[in-house]
Amino acid sequence: MTDPVGVRLKRLPHGHGLDLPRYATDGAAGMDVLSAEAVSLKPGQRHAVATGFAVAIPDGYEIQVRPRSGLAFKHGITVPNTPGTIDSDYRGELKVLLINHGDETFAIERGDRIAQLVLAPVTQAAWEEVDELDDTSRGEGGFGSTGGHAKL
Ligand SMILES: O=c1ccn([C@H]2C[C@H](O)[C@@H](COP(=O)(O)OP(=O)(O)OP(=O)(O)O)O2)c(=O)[nH]1
Hints:
Order of helices and strands: EEEEEEHEEEEE
Number of helices: 1
Pathway: Pyrimidine metabolism; dUMP biosynthesis; dUMP from dCTP (dUTP route): step 2/2
Strand order of the largest sheet: 2-3-11-6-8
Shape: globular
Enzyme class: hydrolase
EC number: 3.6.1.23
Distance between the termini: 38 Å
CATH class: Mainly Beta
Bound molecules: deoxyuridine-5'-triphosphate
Helix content: under 10%
InterPro entries: dUTPase (IPR008181), dUTPase-like (IPR029054), dUTPase-like_sf (IPR036157), dUTPase_trimeric (IPR033704)
Domain dUTPase-like: 19-147
Structural class: mainly beta
């Protein structure tokens, strides 16, 4: 595990009194993030859930917003834009987009752990436009070209 990276975090008025996102175990990759609002999601419904804080991520990093597998597996609650991207220059409230793919209304209470945040390094690309690309054994094969499942 590398040394932790400092990330500035500002609580917004509706975030006061809530725990900050935190790693549930020593080896956790993601910090569980809490909802700052109570909201119910009907089947098929989407919502941008308030977290009650904003961040200033250091240059060269992003935060990814990922689903919690337990909510996804047991209730069909997931992040439709997974992994959500929090840019280092974004200063608005960090929101967690959720969708209910289950068949029952799902109630979220303020303080519920709704998703997880993963701090990740970012490498920006610089295009090098060329007339021809190098040959590879895969070539233009893709989208299941190597098989591995009867349906492919
Ligand atoms: O799950 C998410 C995804 C994004 N954002 C915020 C932070 C991010 O930096 C900003 C823009 O996100 P993104 O680039 O994914 O959105 P876009 O649809 O491309 O909008 P924009 O034109 O604002 O970049 O919105 C969130 O709070 N939660």
